[in-house]
User: Fold this.
Amino acid sequence: MTAAGVPAGVLLLAHGGPDPATRDELRALRSLVAARLTGAPPPAGRPPVAVELGVLEFPGPELPATGEALAALAGWGTVVVQPLLLFDGLHAGRDLPRLIADACRLGLQVRMGGAFGCDPALIDLVVERAAALAPGPDDLLLFVGRGSSSCRAREETEAVAAAVAGRLGLEHVVCYAGISPPLLAEGARLALARRPRRLLALPYLLHRGVLSRRVAEVLAPAAARAGTALTVLSHLGNAPQVVEVVAGRVQALLAGGPERRAP
Assistant:
C-alpha cells in the first residue's frame, strides 16, 4: 500500500543477462525481497506478494521483458519500480522514461526508485569483506566497476572506490569490466606497475555472470606474469545487505518516500 492507501504492485527492474547464473541470482533476489516485504520465508513458487521481476535485456523463462512484467501488474493502479542498478547510466536515462510511458498506456501510475550503488550499507559490505583479508600498506585495491557511457555513473563509481579504499587505508586503481576505459587489462597494468605485495581485486558488480568471471580471467594471468599475489573478492550477489537495501527502498517508495532524481 502507498502512503495514500492506494494498493501498489512492485516491479524489480533488472538489466538481465544471457548467463544462467545471472538469471538464477535474479530469480532468487526477487523471492528474497518479496519475503522481506512480507516477513515470510521465501516460498517454493511465486513470491508471496505482488513482486514482479522484469528485465531490460535477455528475457526468458521467469524473466519477462519489462512490458510483460508491467502487464502482470495492470490491476494494481500504482506500481513501485525499483531498478536493480548500482549507478545511473544509459538505462536510467533511456529505458526508465520509456517504462513510465508504457505504464501510462496501461493505466498505471509509477513511483520510480533510483540506483543504489552509493548506499552506505553496500560500502560497509565490501569494506568488511576486504578487511577480512587483513590488507597491509603494501597491498593495492583494484576496484572493478561495470562501466558506463554516463559520466555521472563513472563519477559515482570512482567515489565509491575512493570511499572503500579510504576505509581500508589502501591506495587504489579503478577500472571497468566493460565499456569504459581503463578496461581490465589496462587496469591490471596500471595496478601492477606500482609493484604491490598483493593485488586485491574488488568486482563492484551486482550479479554473477560474464563480467564477474572476466575479472579473474583477465587479472590472474597478468598477476602471474608479474609475480604478484592476487585475491579476487566476490561480486555483491544476494548478500543480506543487498536484499535489505532493495527491500528498504521499495518500502520507502510504498510509504510515499522520494522518487529517483532525473539522470
Notes: The chain has two domains: 8-116+238-254, 120-232. The chain has a mean pLDDT of 89. The longest helix spans residues 20-38. Strands lie at 8-14, 51-55, 78-83, 109-112, 139-145, 171-176, 198-203, 229-232.
